[in-house]
Write a structure and sequence with these properties.
By secondary structure, the protein is mostly beta strands. Helix content is about 5%, strand content about 50%. The strands form two sheets. It has a 14-stranded antiparallel β-barrel with strand order 2-3-4-5-6-8-9-10-12-13-14-15-16-17. Strands 1-7 form a two-stranded antiparallel ribbon. About 40% of the residues are buried.
């Protein structure tokens, strides 16, 4: 879900065909409730690298780890979201510290969001062999929010409609806590902790950042010698738009292939009187796979099928991820890192 202050009256320029204009409007309205909706980029394969939602995840794999994402959401719809992200993380101080650099570029119609964060996690050993860790994380960085007025089309004349690019650079911070052992994991995090306080003029179309909160947990269940089941969930909330729930189930086959699916829906955890009544809760079904083509290299693909208001209007969502681990020759993890 995404946001924008005046998107209820502004759509992306798509030419003279009314069908395209209506599709662009659907892109906006699908995740917007009069300027109140989640702004953070959304990934369907977040469970394979938690740094995207929690800075305390930094260093979890105890190796130099590089991962990239590309997401093309609602394929075929004008102005649909597109996101690229890159994360690098590693450990230091005898596994007590995790460090990560995270870069992202997110676009929705005329709106853009470029961000860079440095993340620090202090990792506390919870058992004798170090397989269980409790980590506290902090991320600091800068975010550039922008609007390209040349890509906007107004239903009615707008006195403040920009003809060029509006942008604002803000400092930001994120924080989180993360626990993991060889069977279970859980994390709680929040972002946009600083940028939410920046004053944005009413005449600007740049959306006001809002804090986002993430709660996730999962486990690993051995079904046989070669098959393991990994169920998990993620709850996302920004105290403005609908609360979102992801329920996931993946199978690990011979430690080489992950296959599974997710169901994403809205949930009502507490009363939000400001939301429009009768909104559809259904969002999407995700099918995904991750393959270890080599010992240290993996590639993943996810396909989101819309089951909510956008059903039948888009060609689905495609997401590709790649990851590479630089394993030290003189070290060996006591337990595999499956979370």
């Amino acid at each position: 879900m995404r946001s924008g202050k005046k998107y209820c009256v502004i759509v992306v320029k798509t030419g003279i065909k009314m069908k395209k204009i209506l599709l662009a409007l659907l892109v906006v309205l699908a995740g917007v409730q009069i300027g109140k909706a989640q702004q953070d980029a959304q990934f369907s394969q977040y469970m394979f690298n938690g740094i995207y939602i929690n800075p305390a995840y930094a260093g979890y794999r105890e190796q130099l780890n590089v991962q990239g994402f590309y997401r093309n959401q609602w394929t075929g719809m004008p102005g649909a979201p597109q996101t690229e992200s890159l994360a690098i993380d590693a450990i230091a101080n005898d596994n007590r510290v995790g460090l990560a650099l995270q870069l992202s570029n997110d676009r929705l119609g005329a709106q853009s969001n470029i961000a860079a964060y440095g993340n620090y996690a202090y990792r506390i050993q919870m058992n004798a062999d170090g397989s269980a860790r409790l980590a506290f994380g902090l991320g600091v960085g800068i975010v550039q929010f922008g609007i390209d007025g040349s890509k906007l089309y107004a239903n009615d004349p707008e006195p403040y409609l920009p003809t060029g690019i509006q942008s604002k650079i803000m400092a930001d911070a994120r924080t989180g806590v993360y626990y993991a052992d060889d069977k279970y994991y859980a994390g709680l995090s929040a972002d946009n902790l600083v940028s939410q306080f920046y004053k944005i003029p009413n005449s600007s179309l740049i959306p006001q950042p809002k804090p986002h909160y993430y709660l996730t947990a999962g486990m690993l269940l051995p079904l046989s010698e070669d098959i393991q089941l990994k169920p998990s969930f993620l709850i996302k909330d920004d105290r403005a738009g609908p609360t979102s729930l992801d329920v996931n189930a993946f199978l690990l086959l011979k430690a080489k292939v992950w296959i599974g699916c997710s169901y994403r829906t809205g949930v009502k955890l507490y009363n939000k009187s400001y939301l429009q009544k009768g909104l559809s809760q259904a969002n999407s079904i995700v099918v995904a796979a991750q393959i270890f083509s080599a010992q240290n290299f993996r590639i993943g693909y996810a396909y989101d099928i819309s089951v909510g208001p956008l059903q039948g209007y888009s060609g689905g969502t495609h997401e590709i991820s790649i990851g590479y681990f630089f394993e030290k020759k003189d070290s060996r993890m006591l337990t595999p890192r499956y979370f």
